[in-house]
């Protein structure tokens, strides 16, 4: 009976998530349809293509993030340099960093021990957090990326910005699927990052002062350990000790 109850609880979470996704995808679809109407009337301009392309990209992002949340993740663990993963996450954000007049300070200990992780997932989590930091500084600012070893067992990553910060009463909303204060936000970035860090048995903590800035602190164990993780819906997961 317990098992059945859990199954239906999981379905409820998927249902909520799916309802949110449907809602999120409807907006770009409406925009795309609108542009197609233009082409029916013979009023289509080539400038529309880049707008349509952005909307399609948005749908792709939403679906990709949904998959990380909803699909049980097979963890394909390998040993990686977290400093390199941070750089890999930062590189595609360079144009955005320039555009926002953001200066970047790297304090990555060298050498850093390799961490047992799922490379693609961890890079995605870093990218979501870095993107938020840059988005918090539309009028320029300073981004600090720090990584060092903690007690020889975990790597400690700190991503700090001196951007807009988060009002105290909004902190409790962080990590809730679809919570966003941005016009074009999906509100899935932190939820996905949290899930990925949980899958690595790590922790994600956010400290913020409105008007001053935000620090995101990650602790990632170097060894994933004996445990295997069965990820389930909405960031809930069960661990099995073998
Ligand atoms: P999105 O970026 O699409 O809005 P996220 O899940 O990445 O979704 O972030 C949720 C919300 O958390 C953001 O809309 C923003 O209000 C807040 N937030 C996250 N990171 C920061 C940050 N570094 N500075 C200020 N606010 C942040
Ligand atoms: Mg984000």
TrEMBL record:
Residues 20-224 form the Histidine kinase domain. This is histidine kinase. The chain holds residues 639 to 880 of 880 of the full protein.
């Amino acid at each position: 009976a317990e098992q059945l109850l859990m199954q239906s609880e999981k379905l409820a979470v998927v249902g909520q998530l799916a309802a949110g996704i449907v809602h999120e995808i409807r907006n770009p679809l409406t925009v795309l349809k609108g542009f197609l109407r233009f082409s029916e009337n013979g009023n289509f301009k080539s400038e529309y293509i880049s707008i349509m392309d952005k909307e399609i990209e948005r749908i792709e992002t939403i679906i990709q993030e949904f998959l990380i949340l909803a699909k049980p993740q097979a963890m394909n663990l390998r040993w990686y340099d977290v400093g390199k993963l941070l750089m890999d996450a930062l590189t595609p954000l360079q144009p955005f960093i320039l555009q926002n007049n953001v200066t970047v300070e790297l304090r990555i200990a060298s050498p850093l021990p390799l961490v047992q992780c799922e490379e693609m997932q961890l890079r995605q989590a870093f990218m979501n957090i870095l993107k938020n930091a840059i988005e918090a500084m539309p009028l320029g600012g300073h981004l600090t990326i720090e990584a060092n070893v903690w007690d020889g067992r975990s790597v400690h990553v700190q991503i700090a910005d001196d951007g807009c910060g988060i009002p105290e009463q909004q902190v409790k909303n962080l990590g809730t699927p679809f919570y966003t204060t941005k016009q074009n936000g999906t509100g899935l970035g932190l939820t996905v990052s949290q899930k990925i860090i949980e899958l690595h048995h790590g922790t994600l903590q956010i400290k913020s002062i409105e008007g001053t800035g935000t620090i995101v602190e990650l602790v990632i164990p170097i060894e994933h350990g004996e445990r295997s993780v069965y990820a389930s819906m909405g960031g809930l997961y069960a661990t099995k000790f073998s």
